[in-house]
Amino acid sequence: MTPVNSVVIVGGGTAGWLTAGLLAATHSKQGSTGARLSVKVIESDSIHPIGVGEGTWPTMRSTLAKIGIEEAALVQQASATFKQASKFVHWHTEGQRTGYYHPFSAPQGSASVDITPYWLHNDSLNEYASDVCFQPSLCEQGLAPKLKADSKQSFSANYGYHLDAGKFINVIREHCKKVLGVEHIIDDVTDVATDDAGIKHVVTKNNDHIRGDIFVDCTGFSARLIEKALDVPMEDASSVLFSDSALVHQIAYSDEHQPIACHTLSTAQEAGWIWDIGLQNRRGTGYVYSSEFQSDDEATQTFMAYLKSINPNEELPSTFRKINYKTGYRKRFWEKNCVAIGLSSGFLEPLEASSLMLIEQSAIQLAEQLPAYTQVMPHVASRFNRALTNKWQSTIEFLKLHYVLSNRNEDFWLANRSPQSIPQRLASLLEEWQYRPILDSDFTDTDEVFSAQSYRYILYGMSHKTNLSQYVRSMSEYEGADKQLQLNKALIAQLKARLPSHRGLIDTMLNKH
């Protein structure tokens, strides 16, 4: 039996260094042979990461805890702020309501009763997330998700992070090198040698041949190992998600004391949507659009109009940095002894922070199920491929949900509602949900990425027209549900009185007070 003692990660960036950190931290002890797992990262200093993944899920907190990186380091070194939700504006308009929230915290009392059907049955209620969860009110008021920087406290809303992608990579890189013993090789890969087992070695400009038991392809869109060397094709998903371009820009706050949004803002446009992420000293923005429905010049004008609306005094460039991409994922993420993580594994628009989430999911599964011996690698690879394929497919379905529910009438949005572009499982569930609420049992696969609760926030945030005439036969918790709705109102009032502002908590963590 040949033990797996070394992993070579080709490419740095968020994918490369998160993977390195999880592998090194998970396998930090010596094996029976006396050897620790060797983790090497080969990173070119002439290739720069795309660096637009600046929003995370709450799972990033536990991921970084596994690696050993403290939250204070993110705030102090990566311009991090707290993310409590995503807010969708102009995706669906109904009367005076133009936006809704997808918060990270569950509805009030969800551990004991799902109050959704009772909310649906009550015509006097307003926006779903705001009625069933305290968190949208915190976002609207610009409040922090917790009382103070100390993690040991009685209350903390569920939260992820907004962070500067370039600085975030630096934080992980330095921690991996100094604390976890990851070997950092700054060099350019000039050739990739293959054999029957997969990647035999990589040839670099200054370090000759570098061998490993497993190679991780984090080379981004170039997919140097998984595609160019091992010829694993992509599964095209552009017939479901139409966007293929993004314009990006970083814009300053109008003044240094401006409140920091603690939610990602996603504003629908004629042929796509604009993300807007609040960091400590700037906002990261980008326009995701379909070149089939809007020219680059038109997209530039759309993006510029948005930027002028948030800071009229900033001098804007005549053109913006552009990213072209094709939506899809690898037919196999793990091929022989090579695993693709990050952009080399595929790309989906960054709606709902899906890109960083899929990096996390991939790296965690690799670290947890790293094969002990090369002989059992095919079994692990098969399981990994099934799980990741399911995760990518379920993510695509969830992102498509946002488009399917829109009532916008531009060509891009009308095309997104065409039946042939909607995945079959999603179409079937949408038909069922016309007559009953979303149930937890609709999503029982262990590889599901988004829970029933996330689907509820989007479906009922967009529109809550559900015919419950038959479902009411199973509803018997009216009093308990009403109690939870009232408790949510009380909790909102309490938190508004107690929580600091988002910028105030960040300033405290930066020792500005």
From TrEMBL:
SUPFAM superfamilies: FAD/NAD(P)-binding domain (SSF51905). InterPro entries: FAD/NAD-bd_sf (IPR036188), Flavin-dep_Halogenase_NPB (IPR050816), Flavin_halogenase (IPR006905), Trp_halogen (IPR033856). The keyword NADP does not apply. FAD binds at residues 12-15, 189, 343. The active site is at residue 83. It holds the Pfam family Trp_halogenase. L-tryptophan binds at residue 352. GO terms for molecular function: monooxygenase activity; nucleotide binding. The keyword Cell inner membrane does not apply. 7-chloro-L-tryptophan binds at residue 83. Keywords: FAD, Flavoprotein, Nucleotide-binding. This is Tryptophan halogenase. It comes from Alteromonas naphthalenivorans.
